[in-house]
Amino acid sequence: MREAIDAIELGCMDRREHGFFKFDGKTIHVRNAGANFEAVKGTLRAIVNSNNIKEIRLLAHADCGAMKLVNSVLKEKKEFSDKVGSGLMEKINEVLIDQFRGIRFDSVEELCRKNNELQAEKLRAAFPGITITRGDEPVDVQKVTDTGSGHEHHSLYILKPSTKTYAGMIGGNQFDAYVLQAMSIEELKPDIAIALLLGQRSITLVAQSAEEFMTVRNDMNSLKVSPNIPSGLKETMTMVKVYKLPSKIM
Prior knowledge:
Elements: E1 7-12, E2 27-32, H1 37-50, E3 55-59, H2 65-74, H3 81-84, H4 86-97, H5 108-126, E4 131-133, E5 155-159, H6 166-170, E6 177-181, H7 185-197, E7 202-207, H8 210-224, H9 231-234, E8 238-241
């Protein structure tokens, strides 16, 4: 019998974070760009409402690509609307960048520390009856020695929140994969755009069970008609078979 879920880990999509998650059968994982509460608050609330969650552990990390994007927009005044479209850039501002306006920082390193503090504050405000834990410093992913195959570009995997290991769901070298996990593809579209800005070149949507297959296929179709996903990238989208999906539906 499956153990009752009693904890959530909110982390970043960065491939170097895989080894910092807890896989005890009772912890469910939610991931996006920057371990950012605002982007996945719907998913977090749904999990809390349907489980007896006692703790939410925050895994914001150092050397974060999402924080580098925030720095590029706020400090360097760079524009990215031409790459992802004005509508989606507005959404990226809304769920990620705007929360840092008015916060003083002098470097990406300092911004990562501010993010670690800010996301914990937001979690405590949203879930006052749940223990929120974080490290005194962001997770130091720069110490990770297993960095995949050495390829310049890595795959982006989109999964529903799960307690399962990434090696089991993704296969191959998990450190070649960036991972997004939320219940809704709509929640993740700004994060997918951020992943594209950070250099991802392929997207794989993962169905973890036969029951998830139709939902995930609809998610894939939704992305394929999105005007902000480059046509060349749409051609690389695939559906992977995991956990013995019945062959008749593949």
